[in-house]
Amino acid sequence: MSDEFKFPQTGFVRLNQILAPVGPIPVSKSSWWAGVKEGRFPQPQKLGPRTTVWRAEDIRALYENGAS
């Protein structure tokens, strides 16, 4: 996949950067959270009570391997 989304190589990303149309993963929020719960998608990290992030490397590996 090309880097058409300008997705970061490293660091943390928020959910709105992950899901389409902005991000590379074409699923709804509810499907994403179900996938996280089932272990199909990477586990998030909490930075604060209202801040949830994922490692950019984990998300990049997910869409580069075609696992979405």
In short:
This protein is α+β, with helices and mostly antiparallel strands and 68 residues long. It has helices at residues 15-18, 29-38, 56-64; strands spanning 12-13, 45-48, 51-55. It has one domain (17-64).
Q: Low-confidence runs (pLDDT<50, min 5 residues)?
A: none
Q: Would you report the number of β strands?
A: 3
- The helix content is 25-40%
Mean pLDDT: 91
What order do the SSEs take from the amino end to the carboxyl end, as H and E? EHHEEH
Q: Note the total helix count.
A: 3
**What best-fitting shape do the alpha-carbon axes yield?**
globular
* Order of strands, widest sheet: 1-3-2
Question: What is the rounded distance between the termini?
Answer: 12 Å
Q: How many individual domains?
A: 1
Biggest β-sheet description: 3 strands, antiparallel
What structural category do the secondary elements indicate?
A: alpha+beta
Q: How large is the share of residues in beta strands?
A: 15-25%
Entry keywords:
68 residues, 34% helix, alpha+beta, globular
Structure overview:
- The chain has one domain (17-64).
- The chain has three helices and three strands; from the N terminus they run βααββα.
- It has helices at residues 15-18, 29-38, 56-64; strands spanning 12-13, 45-48, 51-55.
- It has a three-stranded antiparallel sheet.
- The radius of gyration is 11 Å and the shape is globular.
- The model has no long low-confidence stretch (mean pLDDT 91).
